[in-house]
Design a protein that fits this description.
Low-confidence stretches: 5-25, 70-75
Family: Belongs to the fatty acid desaturase type 1 family.
Strand order of the largest sheet: 1-2
Number of strands: 2
Bound molecules: stearoyl-coenzyme A, zinc ion
Protein name: Stearoyl-CoA desaturase 5-like isoform X1
Keywords: Fatty acid biosynthesis, Fatty acid metabolism, Iron, Lipid biosynthesis, Lipid metabolism, Membrane, Oxidoreductase, Transmembrane, Transmembrane helix
Pfam family, one: FA_desaturase
Number of domains: 1
Membrane topology: Multi-pass membrane protein
């Protein structure tokens, strides 16, 4: 079935239609409270990733194919799977309800989502809905107005601004929590995430004789690279790039981020039309997540893919675009 563009009011409409809250209390921010435990964990992870980088030349080629996304390799296993768990799963399915998925696909997405270790689907979707509704205000968990570092990683190293929690509690998430797959994933999250993110990626390479130390640190490297690719959507894609659809918002079309984040860098389009399952109007161009969802639709596992009609896009481009629409569409060809 072809993607629909006649969608009725989507579940997340309440989340996406509003402009930033006028009640957000700018200027009254409490002092930033650093969470030292997170600073230590993130520092150790990044140091482990650098160590993993040094181990790359001595690693078995199969280990590289298993763990990393090698552009020249047909095997894109751990990086791509974990990324799809976030992009096709937590983001486009659960947070935005931009398409529907049958039970086997939802189970698969919940399992590979554990591999990304980015908080469980419920917490991830809640923060993301708050991000869209209150973008670039104190209630935005990774408010890019607080600078690149805060939007990228800093927000995970400090206590949340009280507005994030108060506004977040007003967001309807019953649709997410009513999904039994989300409930089970939330219950089992800690052990499942450690198993999927570190234990399995470390043990599998021993099948071809890889040392556990090398496999472990290359897994850490994979995790840290995927985290940074994700965070770039919040930092770089909220700062740099053109705005063919809406010049009045900060999210921008960012090609390098789209490459690293499986098609999630088309952020000006995404914030303008958050209910579009493809997060861009460029089809499969630099958007492996859309390719995956379309493939799942072919198998009958995904359906009701919501798509914005070209007429609506054109109207929006001429009303609020920055004038780069034609040029930016051509530059991707
Ligand atoms: C990670 C997530 O990296 C990355 C998400 C990025 C999103 C990107 C989106 C872009 C689009 C998609 C792109 C995908 C690209 C993928 C490409 C892949 C290659 N509303 O949290 P607490 C409540 S995670 C309502 O402790 P603190 C909460 O329920 C990395 N309520 O706040 C709780 O209530 P109760 C690994 C909320 O103390 C209470 O508040 N994970 C909300 O301020 C306290 O909650 C980590 O590093 C809300 N929004 O601590 C973990 N939020 O008491 C990091 C919270 O009743 N997290 N509440 O239960 C933490 O350690 C802490 O959350 C903290 C804040 C220190 C950051
Ligand atoms: Zn954003
Ligand atoms: Zn989104």
């Amino acid at each position: 079935m072809a993607p629909r563009n006649d969608f009725g009011p989507p579940v997340h409409m309440e989340v996406t239609k509003d402009l930033p809250s006028p009640t957000a209390q700018d200027g009254k921010a409490p002092p930033t409270q650093i969470v030292w435990r997170n600073v230590v964990i993130m520092s150790l992870l990044h140091m482990g990733a650098i160590f993993g980088l040094f181990l790359l030349p001595s690693a078995h080629p199969y280990t590289l194919m298993w763990v990393m996304k090698c552009l020249c390799s047909p095997a894109v296993i751990c990086y791509s799977l974990s990324a799809l768990g976030v992009t096709a799963g937590a983001h486009r399915l659960w947070a935005h309800r931009s398409y529907k998925a049958r039970l086997p696909l939802r189970i698969f997405l919940a399992i590979i989502n554990c591999m990304s270790l980015q908080n469980d689907i419920y917490d991830w979707s809640r923060d993301h809905r708050v991000h869209h509704k209150y973008s670039e205000t104190p209630a935005d968990p990774h408010n890019a107005k607080r600078g690149f570092f805060f939007a990228h990683i800093g927000w995970l190293l400090v206590r949340k601004h009280p507005d994030v929690i108060t506004k977040g509690k007003q967001i309807d998430l019953t649709d997410v929590l009513n999904d039994p797959v989300v409930k089970v994933q939330r219950k089992l999250y800690a052990p499942a995430a450690v198993l999927m993110c570190f234990i399995i990626p470390t043990l599998v390479p021993s099948l071809w004789g890889e040392s556990l130390v090398t496999a472990f640190f290359i897994s850490v490297l994979r995790y840290v690279l995927a985290l940074n690719a994700t965070w770039l959507v919040n930092s770089a894609a909220h700062m740099w790039g053109n705005k063919p659809y809406d010049k009045f918002i900060n999210p921008s079309q960012n090609f390098p981020v789209a490459v690293l984040a499986m098609g999630e860098g088309w952020h000006n389009y995404h914030h303008t039309f958050p209910y579009d399952y493809a997060t861009s109007e460029l089809g499969w161009k630099v958007n492996p997540t859309t390719v995956f969802i379309d493939f799942m639709a072919r198998l009958g596992l995904a359906y009701d893919r919501k798509k914005v009609s070209p007429n609506v896009i054109r109207a929006r481009v001429s009303r609020t675009g920055d004038g780069t629409w034609e040029k930016s569409a051509q530059s991707i060809d």
